Amino acid sequence: MEKFKTLEIVRKTPGSRVFHLYLNRPSRGNALSVDSFSEFPRALAALDRNPDVNVVVLSGAGKHFCAGIDLTALASITSISGDHGRSGEKLRRDIKLLQDSITAIERCRKPVIAAVHGACIGAGVDIVTACDIRCCTEDAFFSVKEVDLAITADLGTLQRLPAIVGYGNAMELALSGRRFWGPEAKELGLVSKTFCSKDEMDKEVGLLAEGIASKSPLAVTGTKAVLLRSRDLSLDQGLDYVATWNSAMLVSDDLKEAVSAQTQKRKPVFAKL
């Protein structure tokens, strides 16, 4: 598997179908550099293609999950010279590339679980709102920080956060840029669970990931795909979409194995995807 400057992919247990993806710039609080945005979609695409991977756990190396976008990268992206129209057009293309890097989480067929400790600021919130499941330690803290840098958040938080925490809560968090901690994140629905310590979180998230990884990969990837697609559809459209999906995917070896395992009262064993 490709080696990265700003990321690390680890398979902690031999034979496990859970792989860990670490934001790996601990000396900078895992702030996202230009290299980070380039490497992130490549890493997720590699995990998506790897048949040994059923679930991805995303976390940060060191003391923090992600301290946002590296200010050096921000300066590089926003530098404007010459014709304002052409500079603006280039900036738009650059922003679209950064957005695409975050959306790579949703494009990955395998579920991505965010395990957050320490700071999750700015672009860190962009990342976790694109993840499928989010957990954090009680002392983790979050901030939609862009407004304090005179920026309208543009990498996905303003689009994804309202569906997770509600429109009014998203508006207040995005306009104030205030810091909020794990228990409030749980109350708002931003995270599913909070944990007293990072060790406890790592253990419990690992068990959650292994549980999901043991299920039919066709059913798991299908559930993620249908939920994401249904987010942008009406109820009738969503029902039609899942009917079409299952007309292609329902009758499978996984279904036979699941029914057989239930009948024989044993754990099912599914083929790699």
Automatic annotation (TrEMBL):
This is Uncharacterized protein. It comes from the Eukaryota. One of its GO terms (biological process) is fatty acid metabolic process. CDD domains: crotonase-like. GO terms for molecular function: delta(3,5)-delta(2,4)-dienoyl-CoA isomerase activity. Keywords: Acetylation, Fatty acid metabolism, Isomerase, Lipid metabolism, Peroxisome. The keyword Acetylation applies. Belongs to the enoyl-CoA hydratase/isomerase family. Its main location: other. Pathway: Lipid metabolism; fatty acid beta-oxidation. The lineage of its organism: Eukaryota, Viridiplantae, Streptophyta, Embryophyta, Tracheophyta.
